[in-house]
Amino acid sequence: MRRLVPVLLVMALPLLLASTGEAQTTRADTAAVLLDVATRLQTEGRASLSRSLLDLIIERYSGTPAAEAARLARAQVRPAVEERSGRTELLVWATTYGLALGAAVPGAFDANEPEAYGVGLLVGGPAGFGVGRLLAKEGITEGQARAITFGSLWGAWQAFGWREVLDIGDPDPLCLTEPDGPELCYERDAEGSTKVRAAILGSFAGLGTGVLLAKKPIASGTATTVNLGALWGSWFGVAGAVLGNFDEGDEALTWALLGGNAGLVATALLAPKWNLSRNRARLISISGVAGGLAGAGLLLIGGGGDNTAILIPVVGSIAGLGLGVHWTRNYDERAPGNNNDGGEALLEWRDGEMKVGTPTPTPMLLRTSARDVARVTPALHVPLFKARW
What we know:
64% of the residues lie in helices and 10% in strands. The protein is built from twelve helices and seven strands.
């Protein structure tokens, strides 16, 4: 019996080796198939899924050729940035948007009674909050929320600007002739109701566009890159108008609108491929702001008053953006998901410490007066300091 056992083992050895070889071949083939899928996901820009699949190959199919290839490929796949929920941000924005509409709608129809504004504020806030809850009902990411909020702001700015450029809805001026005096003309739209109506309708159009775009996945870094790209396009549009001596009347505003739209479209097409995190996009942008301000400082020191003087801040902005891209080239790999920033303001006191962030300019309307005539002019709000206790 003792001699029979070795004989049986010797006879079964070829079968065991064949079975092991067949299993090894099956593992290698499975790993190869998974590696092909991971490569396709990476090509399609779905880095998070590709990275997870590569980790699975390395862990479960170690020792196969595909595992070695996966280990090399994994080093080239950028870490996925964790997507936070945008529900709170959307609710806050929707409520503020509702309150703004509650005050703007009565003004758009030349309402002079304070009761109209009171009703608008009472209805606008709850209505905006309800719309925000409806939009965030099935869950929304930070990037999707920012597509909606920026869409409404950008739509309002574009509608306001093009109304100014094309003089849409402007009534004929009221002209009076004094005896033995010059003819004096006054704008009939002195309160800017036509401009406010245009901004409201534009915000509705931008809001609808943002909601449609938010039906697809949008990374927060992509949304931030596109938003900042639109603002940088506006700045370079204005600079181009000044450099080309196209700054008479509404020409500079036209260039700002066209430049902003060009920046918006360009970054919308390129940002998904760049796959920047939100913080890196903001760091690059603030580097450009610092470069532009440095150029303005040199201009103040050296003097200069002609239109070509704006060339120095423009060159400084471009240099700052380029240096920002270079300095932050490994930022996302070093600190994926890093959110220890100062929010939307340049300086923010939060959690018992001072934090530095990137101020995000937002379009706004500024009421001014000249020669006793009220005007509504476009402006940018840049938050410099914010405190939380």
